[in-house]
Amino acid sequence: SVVYKLSKAMNGRVSVPFVGFLWLCVWAAVGESKYMAYKDPRQPIVVRINDLMARMTLEEKIGQMTQIDRVSATPEILKECSIGSLLSGGGSVPLPHATAEDWINMVNGFQNASLSSRLGIPMIYGIDAVHGHNNVYKATIFPHNVGLGATRQVHTYTILFYIDLSSTQTSADYTEKLEECVKEKSDAYDAFNSFIKLALLDCIAKAYDLSLLGPKYDEFCCCRDPDLVKRIGAATAIETRATGIPYVFAPCIAVCRDPRWGRCYESYSEDHKIVQQMTDIIDGLQGEIPANEPKGVPYLGGNIHMPAYYNAIIKGVSTVMVSYSSLNGVKMHANKELVTGFLKGDLKFRGFVISDWQGIDKITDPQPHANYTHSVQLGIQAGIDMVMVPFNHTEFIDALTSLVDDKIIPMSRIDDAVRRILRVKFRMGLFENPLADFSFVHHLGSQAHRDLAREAVRKSLVLLKNGENADSPLLPLPKKASRILVARSHANNLGHQCGGWTIAWQGLDGNNLTSGTTILNGISAAVDPSTEIMYSENPDADFVESNNFSYAIVVVGEPSYAETAGDNVNLTIPEPGADTITNVCGSVKCAVVLVSGRPLVVEPYLSSMDALVAAWLPGSEGQGVADVLFGDYGFSGKLSRTWFKTVDQLPMNVGDSHYDPLFPFGFGLTTKAVGAS
């Protein structure tokens, strides 16, 4: 120890009292140097943040504002630059088919390097988890958001409606009072003396047709299914933790108003109210805010794109990512009015704002990276706290350092950013528990999570057509038939079924990308063993006519894509899907299942189809489609997007003056499970 070395150096040449004095002074100095308030979990977070920031150099602060991809990271970079965060971009994995243990070992290796830095500030590892832990082999892949937006919660409740015959009040009086009560209450209660008793289970619905006296039974309350997405969020969080990763880039709460946009499947709906409901996924991903925690309740005026951010912040979301988009010609990465003024100011957001992948570079689009230092200035001044610079961290750090040294960006802006980043790290307990263990690895792709994904698939399906009229439905299909046809590659292609952001950024083709069940697998498992299934990717009309099929299931759709690669001005069914519909449906009763990230042009073929199902991008559990096709469960999904007739109508959303859809927002036929009363 230091004391031992000092006492040996004295070699007895000082008096005992003086030695004692030295010991007291040295012990006091050692004690003071060892105690660091930011490492003391007993201290309030604000004290810990202040203590740590007082010790940090400008270089360390800017390092905390930097996020790099794992492929650019080395232990030396993490230690010397005090890098604040690492990420895995789409497809950035430790090794092909990496196990949960492989991921944990990689993350912990990087974390140990961060902990060896001068102040030992842990980094935070992030990953895209937009429909489950979608970068990871054998993880559960849930339906994309466009499908989850179509789910609805259906609860049966009974209204017991009692009238006191001695009362002079009319039924209209009771109707008004009951409707007021339904709007205000969500628990079972007694109201209005002995006149009305309402048993309301799980959700609130307006009571209909209450002018009739006497009991009414089996009213239905329906709303979108935020409980489902909350459970999906919790499952995703557990699977992400199973790989040692504590930070996910999810959910996307964009309100897609034009399906030609390649990111539309990442949006729950064209209606912000549905997107607001779906922010309950945050409670699953991050946990609900404890009852004693303060919740900001800022006022929010009417707007299409902003309301869901209010809900997300109320639920305690820790970080917000800025989009690539522009508003009135101003890139969002440079929009101080919205990032600082609205998000941090009006909405009182106290977490940190992170850029998108090379989002700073794209401020100068269509010439990205054209004036990088100026772009860094605009982004940081706009209010971005952490910058995703996957491959060029030294350029970013040098540029921001020079901007601070030249007093173009004030130190107060740097301190605000670092304070926000550290607040998130302290609140998540990263300083106390920086390293992951293997206690959750068995949850990755667990059967319970796959069952949940299968449930989500069932609830997301929207039945758009079922026979020419209600008296001649095709669905549900009989499980026992002599011979049935399953056509097109989407029936047996897990990659297309999952869509983009699955294992790779753009998704993959085929069945070897991860574990899961194709729609064809589900059909095979659902039908009676005596039923012969013939699968053909692109059968011609002669083949169909010559095989005497009882019925056919044609599964067509889009290839996998993500972001701008999915921008599409035509939105037609990719060939030869349309030809297959014509060949098959012209010769035999057929149900068409459309696997896509958005509505597509179907009107030219609709008359030849006996049934049409929008399956969206169902993910890894394709048997959920078969569950409903064959009547084990009923169809219940409702469109969260308007289904247009032609692309010439776009953009067209519910409420528009030119609204003339093929299938309107909220449309969806229902069926009952076979055997259900």
Main β-sheet, in a few words? Answer: 6 strands, mixed
Q: What value does the average pLDDT take?
A: 87
The percent range for strand residues is: 5-15%
How much is the radius of gyration in Å?
30 Å
Choose one word for the global shape. elongated
* Cα distance spanning the termini: 81 Å
Going across the major beta sheet, what is the strand order?
Answer: 14-19-18-17-15-16
Total number of beta strands: 19
Low-confidence stretches: 1-32, 155-171, 181-222, 296-302
List the total number of helices: 23
* Protein structure class: alpha/beta
The helicity comes to 25-40%
Domain Glycoside hydrolase family 3 C-terminal: 461-670
Domain Glycoside hydrolase family 3 N-terminal: 57-155, 223-288, 303-424
Keywords: Glycosidase, Hydrolase
Protein name: Beta-glucosidase
